Amino acid sequence: GQEQYDEQQYYAATNTGLLVLNNLKFMLWWEEYSNTEDQDEYLNCLYQTVSLEVNHSRREVERFKEEGVKDVDGVGAAEIRVVMAEQLLEDARSTETEVDYVKTLALASMRAETVLWWLSLVTTDHPTDDSMLKDRAGWYVGTASSVVTYARTIISESQSMHGLSGLLEEAAVILDRAVL
Question: pTM of the entire structure?
Answer without folding.
Answer: 0.72
